[in-house]
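Lecture notes, unit on protein representations.

Consider one protein chain, 215 amino acids long.
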Amino acid sequence: ATFNIQNYGSSKASKSEVMASLAEIIARYDLVTIQEISQLPDETGTCGLYTESAICDLQIATNARGRSFSLVASPRIGDEQYAILFDPLVVSYLAGSTYPDNASTFSRPPYAFHVNTGGISLAVASTHTSPSTAEQEIAAYPQVLQWMEATFAADIYMVAGDFNADGSYFDEDSSWTPIMAQIPNYTLLTGNEMDTTVSVSSNAYDRIIATSTLQ
């Protein structure tokens, strides 16, 4: 699963009802990639490399639901961080790397987490585009996937996260066709009809592009 917790830091982590809701959602899945961790990480890490109190509190809250989740966080990328929470009985973490955004296309380049689950190797790039540049960032995902294929020996490759791929930020009716044509072995798993928000509006901001064999 993929989850933009939206400006997640110590303030949100201090609200018990919010944390209970977040933990309940995360505990449904074996692997969750998280975007928009806003709190600055400690130099040495609070509960692991690049971690800070808020994401560690979320791990604790999730584990209180009866499962024991592990946590891996990316370095600070732009103005936020990415992380994954996963059940180590099902998923094992192998490696991670930031997309080398030499063209400065991304406001916060994707971070790829390489994991293994059930004997299948999965490389998933967590991403969060800037609304003002969503069109150009999403158009660069074929290059991100090419980099992932060259970097990680995986069975399945995936870009998942908050694409901001709807509304005034992205023309979902016309922009997907030329992008997906560049990556014929991949499928957009999240259709335009989906609502991935909790607001009154209906928008499919959060998306997943994955190797077609995952369908």
